Amino acid sequence: MDSINLCMIAPEFFPVWGGTGSYTVELLKFLPRNVNIHVVTLRRTISGMSRSGSTNVGIKSVISRPVEVHYLSSSNETFFYNLPFQMACLKEIPSLHKHYEFGIIHSHLVHMPDVLLQLLHRINVPTVVTIHGTIQMLRNHALLARSLFSDLESGERSTLYLYPIIKLLQQNYVKHISRFIAVSNVTKEMAVKHLRVKPEAIDTVYNGVDVDIFRPSEKNGAEEKYLEPTVVYVGRMISKKGIHTLIKAMPEVIRRIPRARFLFVGGGDIPMFNELVKKMGIPERNFAFVGHVGYFERPKILREATVFVNPSIFENCSLSILEAMSCGAAVVATNSGGNPEIIKHGNNGLLVPIANHLELAKTVISLIEDDNLNKKIGKEARRTVEKSFTSERCARETCEIYGQILAGRS
């Protein structure tokens, strides 16, 4: 493939606050050098999140290659920013294209940041869309979370309110897209059903992790872990992530292992979940909400965890799970979504039913008490990521799709 100019529309770029942002960063790091990267994004300042990484200095410390960043708007929240950003994309991307002559646009579902641009035919550039989910999936998961846990985070409630409008936009948006990338096979199956596109228009390319950054500790023995048995959750603090289930499991674990600590890492509705933990009567010494942490801080936390837990009611292809596995952590995740495509139960991780706090507690306890099982699973988890879920592989397969489109085989 000859040199091309790529326009990556990235509403979750820096600071990275969600899975789409992590995906974008990992992909851009490993695309070949003949791909000239232009990132179209927005400046974001969110309460409780680290501001480091929101500048070009922070970007260059993570992505050590030339990247041209174009800021089109700004936001201080994580949901209603989308319409102003879509309008900014409609206005500014045609001018950027006139100057840089983009060969490929890469966008994302469910965000659809270029939806107005596509629907109003303001630009004629082949567009690849990575499907991180569909609006039907988000709605279904929000409804399930509400039925299981009662409370929803504000963004989840907004998804339910705006569902008819977003679904209509999505239905028309996908008609203008050249090619789709699904991040797991289960995502592809649901996308075919929800988007009504042909299966051959969707390629499955699993998410990837930088195994040099997310790597196990170089130390050996107990000194590589926290002093107390520590259960770590990393992800957005929203209901569909199943945090209620993990909180309900905490008393069972602490009853068996009084020294156990629970570390919640991520931005979102922290006050809601902090209050829920307090209502459960959990002593403050047994838990902490640390909020959002930077890119280079996550590996330090993950490699020191005794157990990593992802209790989500659905994941497409969880980057937080892959990062934990790459760090050699023993992972417990729900048997839902794309998780079984990553985790083989009893081999490189353990799977539990959704919303079952007793089974979750039992599984976490087993990994804390059985050090041999813990280490065995952690080592196999690392091997799994090295073999099948690296950022290099994700970038290579994605670039092959770019090449096919440019060669006229879309």
Series of H and E elements? EHEHEHEHEHHEHEEHEHEHEHEHEHHH
What name does the CATH topology of the largest domain carry? Answer: Rossmann fold
What is the CATH homologous superfamily assignment of the largest domain?
Glycogen Phosphorylase B
What integer value in Å does the Rg equal?
A: 21 Å
Unreliable stretches: 50-57
What is the helix content?
Answer: 40-55%
**Amino-to-carboxy terminus distance:** 15 Å
If you average the pLDDT, what whole number results?
Answer: 92
Q: What is the structural class? A: alpha/beta
- The main sheet orders its strands as 3-2-1-4-5-6-7
General form: globular
**Would you state the CATH class of the largest domain?**
Alpha Beta
Number of helices: 15
Short description:
The chain is of the alpha/beta class and 410 residues long. It has helices spanning 19-30, 56-62, 82-100, 115-119, 135-149, 154-173, 185-195, 243-256, 270-279, 298-304, 319-326, 339-342, 357-369, 371-388, 391-406; strands at 4-9, 35-44, 67-75, 104-109, 127-131, 179-182, 202-204, 230-234, 261-265, 287-291, 307-310, 331-334, 350-352.
Give a written overview of the molecule.
The protein is an alpha/beta fold. It folds into 2 domains: about 5-210 and about 390-405, Rossmann fold, CATH 3.40.50.2000; about 220-390, Glycogen Phosphorylase B (Rossmann fold). About 45% of the residues lie in helices and about 15% in strands. It contains 15 helices and 13 strands. The chain has helices spanning about 20-30, 55-60, 80-100, 115-120, 135-150, 155-175, 185-195, 245-255, 270-280, 300-305, 320-325, 340, 355-370, 370-390, 390-405, and strands spanning about 5-10, 35-45, 65-75, 105-110, 125-130, 180, 200-205, 230-235, 260-265, 285-290, 305-310, 330-335, 350. The two termini are about 15 Å apart.
